[in-house]
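Follow-up to my earlier ticket, as requested here are the two runs.
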Amino acid sequence: MALMALQSAATGLGSLSTQLDVISNNLANANNNGFKSSRVNFEDLMYQQFQTPGVQNNNSDVRPIGLEVGLGTRVSGTQLNFAQGNPVQTGRPLDVMIQGDGFFRVKTLPSQGDGFAYSRTGSFFVNPDGKLVLNGSNGYLLDPPITIPNNATAVDIGSDGRVYATLPGTTTPAQQGQIQLTRFVNPQGLVQLGGNLYQRSDASGEPLLDNPGNQGLGTLQSSALEASNVDPVGELVNLIQTQRVFELNSQSIQAADQMMQVVSNLRH
């Protein structure tokens, strides 16, 4: 039995180590606009059954409980939390926040999945060709593409995703394009690529592309960004709890080792 305790506690140490990694990543991205936190889900392993509940004896009496000993735990998965982050007012017209469900779609390398990625980060810039690109190390193009004239004196993005630019000599803004959003049946099934980007998978379902405000998609708020939805206080509580449970599992290993030493010394 002490050997089973060693194995169960070892699985606990491994799973808690994964949880610590996830908590650390959440805290590291607490100031990353558009970042979505993750949590670790656990599940117990198989059980060794010494006595099965419900078995009848010779008197036809049913055993009310069984004798089962678990073999530990494991991480069943990491679950993304897509709860809305708080708005951060920036005053910059090309900063756009999604209020509600949806992702911005950008065009990535053809070798990456279907060539598209999705993001909640709405910090856009204009590349040398005047096209809107997502703020990031790679400068991926927004899809569908939108071009801002080089001589535009002002840019405005409406809640419905329409992009307007004011040109010299005019007072009436002209529409330059339409920002569309994408939603998924199961956003938790998206693959995390880094750079605040996600990619579709068979678990996420097919992307639904439409204008903001349609088919359950959120609306846009310009001159603002969505803050990370990481709760630093809650993550610190989880961090302390993880540390304490890790220590308890370590003590279980020590206790099992001491019991095995006692049994071994009985031979002498």
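Run two:
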Amino acid sequence: MKKKLGSIFINTRFFELLFFTTILSFCDNLSFAQPVLPQRSLSVTATQGIHFGTFCLTSSSGGTVTVGYDGSRSSTGDVLLLTKAPTAHPAIFEIKLCEGRNVTINFDVSTILNGSNSGTLTLNLGPTEKGINGVSFPTNSDCNFFTQLRMGGTLSVPGGAIVGTYTGSFAITFNQE
């Protein structure tokens, strides 16, 4: 269609085609890609070791001290729990894994602790707040937040255990699924 503006004729169809051609040429330079995928690496930080607090034996029979993953503490046999510091608490791990993937934990159920004045105690690990050894659980789905895992255990105190501070370590394996 042509329109007369004064003495100039303008072809509007020509400008429509020019406009669409220009738009299409801009679209040529666009590219589309998949979004950046979140990290797949698993990071674990031990933020607190397990601690059984202060206790003593009232006779030579022995017993146990248990610290739950929730921080509760109990004893059996001739073990007397004292309220003196330091207080008991579970081990805490912070797990970071994006996309809400699952993590499976595996650990040696039993380990030996060595005393400052010789002697040894046996530490039986678990359960965790997520379950027992070999449990699989989902992590938080946001990469900016950590999933906490609390772990308790039971300390076997034999009759005639030597007074002192007992320390040790244990291995825990975190596998992502």
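The only thing I checked on run two: Residues 122 and 156 are 5 Å apart (CA to CA). Let me know what else you need.
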